[in-house]
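Thread: Newbie trying to understand structure tokens

Hi all, I'm a second-year student working on a class project, and my supervisor (Dr. K.) asked me to get a predicted structure for one chain before our next meeting. I've only ever worked with sequences, so writing a 3D structure as a token string is new to me. If someone could post the tokens and maybe explain what I'm looking at, I'd be very grateful. Here's the chain:
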Amino acid sequence: MTNLYPFLLDRDNPRDLRETPLSPPKIYRIAEEYRQFIDQIIVSNGKIEARIWRIREVLKKEYKDATTEPKNRVIVIPILEGASNFYNGLFRTKPTFHHRAISLTSKSYNNSTSSGDLNLNQDNLQEIAKSIPGERVIIIEDIIDTGNTLKGIVDLIQDQKPRDIKIVSLLTKPDRHKSKNLEALLPHIASIGFIIPDIFIIGYGLDAGGFLREFPDLATPSEYCIKKLINKLQ
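---
Reply by user tm_fold:
Sure, no problem. This is what the structure looks like when written as tokens:
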């Protein structure tokens, strides 16, 4: 797995948090409705936004020629619901570059199709099939875990023969990576926000069974939150 780090550190210096002590929520101003659900804060919203600013600047430089012209178009694909916060932070809070966004949504929506372990919206896939041949593509991901889902999506997109594919992910968990997936994904990875340990993360788009996706920081869930999730799944 260590092959990932020289490549990334040379390009965009992700923040490695695996040895960083977690912060108790009491040192942050957490809204009352969230307090019983949060155990520890991994990354505050301010630090997330600062890292996103850095990634945004790198992308702006890389795609400064992006226009609506065929040779200069860029397609941005946020992956499932979890990447929406990250996408909005990158592209909607500040001007970046001209692009067209096509979101991939999950099986929880109507008219879905399955590809291996992937359950993706058929309408999204049809739009991608029509839109990305010959185009530059940026995949926006919330977290690279085992890499199974992302590898499957990259394969689907590659089948449509884009000009190139870049991956920008807010988080990655090296301890969970599968080497075969990593080998396939590595040439496409452009930026990573944070390298994190193998722990359960919620907030900033990542949820716990529908809970806490809107929480502004990245955090670990409390025992109360985990029990509530278990009860919901039973």
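A couple of things are worth pointing out once you decode it. The beta strands are 15-16, 38-43, 74-78, 100-101, 112-115, 118-121, 136-144, 164-172, 189-195, 218-221. The chain has one domain: 4-22+44-198. Feel free to ask follow-ups in this thread.
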